[in-house]
């Protein structure tokens, strides 16, 4: 499910990205404990830009109480005594060094034959002078040997924002378990129904190992989730009022923007608060990451809807099964569910343009399928073909409302073809289910590392999977724009190979 | 499911690996079309060893008929006409360059504080002089613009060897679809019940798009699988006799050794045959790869067995649930299923040593759990604790037979503790099921790329997922030894964090 | 899933039923082989009406070739030789006697306290003179020792009509296996896309043991299903033209009416054709039966949709989950899925009337739930509240089109309450899936008995489960009207107990 | 899943049954409120035996405080006000009359052709003089208008005994919800780990609506289950000591014997205690009932194991899949899972005898299958072929230990045939899972009716499904012996039809 994601750069942002890369060309990691080590370590890099530096409280905190590092209470060796003081032998083992890095871009393109495709893309973005591959590094996640919080003084808050996604409860459970069991934190508050819960007056939920014990067997968010409410001032006042000093934010792009603003505002006000995000988007549309939690489960469930549609289509005379899947701006679920199912004839995503009518239009293609194989299966992302449907306004989260392309498409089909249409919109059944084993593990790992990151003193960061490793990423870089399917990439081409569909224009 | 796999290097082989690295220190890719481009491309590497070069028919084929490259019939653009000749515009688009590379090692360790842990491991292996990170590149998989086979003359054979694994039928289906639909191959033979099927006299199965249409909805191998039978001479004679020129081998380490030997023997005899492997191991124990197909599904199913064991344990007075999972030498399934389930108290894998008896033994730990929380859940890999159980002989595939550690452990428990043991061995239920959506996609991608690799003229290669991309790998390097869980790695430590178990010695 | 179904008599039809009962008061089974045995057998009945007599070809067939009974080739003993002639010992064992009966009404109501409820209902219907319980018998299904068809001359046709339902392929498979393996029939035709397939020109599908081997692993109908096309003359002409003499019809009420008409027309034309129905209705709305195949699976799937809706509702601030389930005139799926889920607050079915607005309306109830427990889950059948939504026209099957009560209800909610609505219509995902084990067994049993019934010479019958046994029923009595949920029955009351909902008027 | 169960009478007990029937020939229901009504009601019965009378506290209670009936607080109308006093109008509606009856035997056999088969069986058992069908009635379950307990004074106890079965938690949940919400009971205790929990000193678990809210999403028993501990004196002392006056016992045959003894002892000591059983047996081996809860789920899961075995067998050269399923004395799970799967070649149950060796033995049959179709699937119940395996001793519940027929059979196969055996014992995975929708509903209904029965003053009863209705049954009649598969019945014959297996002797 994670093949060839790395290249999903959005062409529309290369200008921004290039500027960013240029300005960062001489940047160095300054926040690490041992700068000389770091210099040596990075000396092999030629012309590398370090624009994925993450923020540490030391960088931004201006409060009166000095920031002091202390040995981590987190036990990283199997020899940790069940009780009693730890010995010095155990101390340095197995912690992750602040200088550990994970490579963001693991493919090097060797050919310059097609100027739009490979080498030159990198050249354009990162190195105007040549075709050389330039590695991009991000900070490896994990427990640090030195922490910046005393467990007894920690008041952690957890908040879940936006739409549902399989695995939210798994993340909450992992956060609570790591805080309580791993670090000995005693005060953990669950904020209800999104950011609003900081100031809405709904009582915080007290969280501990017991309350979260079985929550991963249920879908949804035990805290309740909600859109909007991103009033940074009110939130930070609530944080200060309640003495919260760690905030874990589970949400998507917009929510991460909020998390970053909260981190900034806390720094500005001189309060020592670590804000750490865990990217939650069922659309899998977060930049830089291999994939996000819940996506795997969503594809599994979405595939079942396609299977039902295919069954209906094949069991009807001139049957057409139409499935609308999630994906406001990116077609990842649609693309992967199409590949997993293997019976789809036509896959339409927001990243490509297509005509419905005309000799090369989708409807004509469906007509051809009905005449030859007797049935057709069409899968489209909710954000596909938005130019055909008018819609106005925004939802509570500030996202523009989408027109209903699924209904529109079925209407067009019906008016032009003699066919028997079965339309499925499985959205809430895909979102609301329990995480599968894969996502459950991923959520556990993300939750653990989010806590490690907060204790290590990082803030304004998010935690995600990069080149199959867990890393800390600076929020601003992750939310520059939605990650999109690359219509020139291998994965999309594999999808076309599977459906056999032509260009629709 | 793919976090932090990259570091699973086995310490016992570092000597071999170092020798290999040293001898390869000056090696260059020689098989690429455009050597100068390639040189330029790799110039940034300092001291890099290129020991992951793959073999092309040009390197080894010594037959009389000259080897000729021709334009690929595979259509890589969405503009491919449904019929009629392709235009030149379409030609070069979207093919993968022979110089494209994927990075094998995507983590750089920054610290030298602990000499056994990080920087120095790399130093020891790859660069005796320093702590620098040295990238390791492998060849990116995908369709090439030039192929070395005429579709009309191809006779492809597919063989499945060894134990079952979810997704085998998906791979077969993808191979057949890509051969027939993507390249126009008309002659595809399924070899029955493993390597033996080449010469056992059981008739080959004729494969085409129709025969494989729904096979992915069933577990197992539609061709039948089997161990042993690796008589290279007989196999190659059969290949020559039947005019087979592409062999796709789905199997594990031993099977890949066979595939490599077949490739060598064909070259030696001057016949033009491409042999391509697709790694199949439910244990996930193949070197270099992120993970192998079927592993994700296996973890999902294994987790269900653990859930049943936990239910039994919790519902009984002093209940102990014991689950034995697959993993002859590596504990990946056991480790991941433990993490996915989240209710396991003790996880035992082949890579760690543990005492059953004594004050620090597992039995005493279980006693303590029964006295405190009232029940216990223990999960062990079949290869764990083999020093406690005697066994002799080898199976048909040449693997040493394992002693039954599950039964042994239950017997020890019963004799020492007052408890109610429920023992589950779900092996065949884990192996025999249908692939989930994730593995189904992975299998589709692997099958497609195996065919691309054969048409491109590579032989003695295998196809797998590396740093979240698909790559071609030289078989000898993949089968140096089984891949193992790193007992000092983050993933194992996360597992210990989840179970809360101490050291058992 | 089969509790307390027996009483679901529709009050609106009691007049018809009573007239039918009265006119039949002296009827006797005349078609049985051994009338005297039969008379003796039924002598214990006092005042019993035998209005569930089924039709035999002897009753209606007026063709020139005499109707001859012959020993059944079906082997009913475990001692049947794998080949060779059967011995006389085996002959009579284990066949079902034509006089075997199954009791339709297995509850006797003892109280006359409430005149509308119990004893008097039966009195009104069956026995105007008193409160005595009067048993109603139906013919037990199963293989008969004498059959009226020579296997070599049988040409069987199978047709599937109407909407999809889990298990259709299981029934087809069982029909084909029993025909071919059990009776040695060699000619079996699958009619494509419903009744129309008899004369549409689409080629019949040849069916045999091999073609149906794995079809039960897929949902839908391998033959294709379709509404309408019930042109009896054309169908019978096709039957005669193709020499078909057994017709197995899988469909609902309308389809059964067609089957009965075909049976009558064949008799009228003097052709020897057995027409046997297998009731297929995902709504479970067939009179007299415990339940129909696919219903159990449908409830399982419907419940998943409710679970998703409940998850969404509980995870949102003032969240309301609304699920629309199948059930044009009867609320069985809605009722059972509500009970299975256990988290539903309000269940609305076609059999009850309810107000949406006003102080006792559903909306006010939802408001109250939001104010007290914070969320609400509402499940409604598609046929509920049709008085609120206007709709016109009929579908291809002649059923009146329903207004979309789900959308209407959500709109009302939204306009009156501040709430966050998640609406799910899982219809096609419920219909299109594979049958579960329960339904798979049921389908196997129904298919076997349908073939037994046809060979025994019955026609115009249907096969179903009655009081936990399989029986043959006269089609006209089954299709008098849809079976409905009894709003005064225990099952509906249990549902109210589970939801806690009040009356909505 | 409930077809043709009614006839499963065990021939070995007909003598007992006949004596019982004879002695009861003149019995009359004496405990009902309105005897004359009852007499009238039963007057139509000719020679009927009423040996399924259930016990009421009025029959047995000899304590000092008089037993007083009072109006039920349970609301059975939809018009029940959400709060406030009930009006008289509501009072009598929808309660079940004490005279309502459910018919136990719903098939009448019409033929006397085969004296061992049909009519004469009934004649032998119930009516020595003729072949007439004699109905057998049981008391219909449901809420009564008069109850014998004041809700405020009720202290209910719930105990779960014996092995796990899907749905136990659903029953507990339904009991607690009906007690608390339906009747207003405030004191409910969960007894831990079976009967022993009454006196073991392990603290009772306080149960209420909240504690049971989500327990049905987990398998097992939240209270813990256990075998043995049936010390009636100690249990009754504990009951008296804690002031318990309702005991709900979830368990199998042995547990029900205990429940009955507790009921008797309480009566003897003059304490007013209602003891109500809910039959729990995954083997479905309880007399008189259509089927028991959890059976449907167990068949679904067992079928998955068979599917895995079939996959393994078909994917191996001369592969044999062997599955051992639950069923100590009865083969219901084995038979139904075989039917559901449809790929089994040989099904062996305790009720039939079979030879392993010899020309007609199972091994020879498997040899034949391997030679012809290449593979074989054998499913056997754990209690099958016990004459081949020696075993001694009894388990904690007093059941004789079984020899391991699965291992024995595989060993025989291996020693006689060249084959590749895959053996699966899925027992704990079948028992430990969550109930499916069907069983979840069944459990809800059983739990509700158990509470209704206790409040109505019945004791020494059990609640179960009879002819598709819920009924109260006298415990002694239910536990006369295990219910067995009838080897001459239709269901077993259908199974043989499905497997195609011959007699094995």
Report what the structure shows:
- Chains A, B, C, D: GO terms for molecular function: 6-phosphofructokinase activity; ATP binding; metal ion binding.
- Chains A, B, C, D: It catalyses: beta-D-fructose 6-phosphate + ATP = beta-D-fructose 1,6-bisphosphate + ADP + H(+).
- 4 copies of one chain form a homotetramer.
- Chain A is of the alpha/beta class and 505 residues long.
- Among the domains of chain A are: 168 residues, Rossmann fold (3-Layer(aba) Sandwich); 151 residues, Rossmann fold (3-Layer(aba) Sandwich), CATH 3.40.50.
- Helices cover 33% and strands 14% of the residues of chain A.
- The first copy, chain A, has 16 helices and 16 strands.
- The longest helix of chain A has 20 residues.
- The radius of gyration of chain A is 24 Å and the shape is elongated.
Short overview:
4 copies of one chain form a homotetramer. The first copy, chain A, is built from 16 helices and 16 strands.
Global shape of chain A: elongated
Task: List how many beta strands of chain A DSSP finds.
Answer: 16
Largest sheet of chain A: 9 strands, mixed
- The quaternary state of the protein chains shown equals homotetramer
Q: What portion of the residues of chain A fall into strands of 2 or more residues? A: 5-15%
CATH topology of the domain at 149-292 and 443-466 in chain A: Rossmann fold
Structural class of chain A: alpha/beta
The N- and C-terminal alpha carbons of chain A lie at a distance of 29 Å
Could you name the CATH class of the domain at 149-292 and 443-466 in chain A? Alpha Beta
Helix content of chain A: 25-40%
How many H/I helical runs of chain A? 16
**Overall pLDDT of chain A, averaged?**
83
Query: Which protein chains are joined by the largest interface, and how many residues does each one contribute?
Result: A-B, 89 and 91 residues
